[in-house]
Design goal:
This protein is mainly α and 155 residues long. It folds into 2 domains: 73 residues, Multidrug-efflux Transporter Regulator, Chain: A, Domain 2; 49 residues, no CATH class. 62% of the residues lie in helices and 5% in strands. The chain is built from 6 helices and 3 strands; from the N terminus they run E-H-H-E-E-H-H-H-H. The protein has a 3-stranded antiparallel sheet. The longest helix is centred in the middle third of the chain and has 42 residues.
């Protein structure tokens, strides 16, 4: 069964322009065209398109995705190279996740900080809190600022 670009875009939850762009960049060499030149997608194309979308979401540059795709088309002889690419991208995603977790911790802390200040009517109340009055998960942040800023944290 064949799908039009609109049908495949809907199936993958992407814009048709995304699929056109992938085609223009040479990422869809398997793509067939009708006698009128319309792009025609098959069921077998879905898995590759999903992988392409995953690699893109993972932050892999399009030129590397293209390289990955070319290696895939070469068959089993390139399994090791593809595995290395996947492992490198996975490490990159893990680092991004770690950075996001740090960012989320900071946002959680500032949410607690401002909720506490709002309840007291002033931010200065936070300077009077003992370390035990600060939620345990935020104590390392307060200590870090204490060491870096001479005890004064950013408001």
């Amino acid at each position: 069964m064949f799908y039009t670009i609109g049908e495949m875009a809907q199936r993958l939850n992407v814009a048709p322009s995304t699929l056109r762009y992938y085609d223009k960049e040479g990422l869809l060499p398997f793509l067939e065209r009708s006698s009128g030149g319309m792009r025609m997608f098959k069921d077998e194309d879905v898995e590759w398109l999903q992988m392409l979308g995953c690699l893109k979401k993972a932050g892999m540059p399009l030129r590397e995705i293209k390289s990955f795709m070319e290696l895939s088309r070469q068959g089993d002889a390139t399994i090791g190279e593809r595995l290395e690419m996947i492992e490198q991208q996975r490490q990159s995603v893990l680092e991004q996740r770690r950075q996001l977790e740090d960012t989320l911790l900071m946002l959680d802390y500032k949410q607690w900080y401002y909720q506490t200040a709002q309840a007291a009517g002033t931010c200065t109340v936070l300077n009077t809190l003992s370390p035990k009055q600060v939620p345990e998960r935020f104590r390392p942040l307060k200590e870090e600022w204490k060491d870096e800023k001479g005890g004064k944290e950013p408001q």
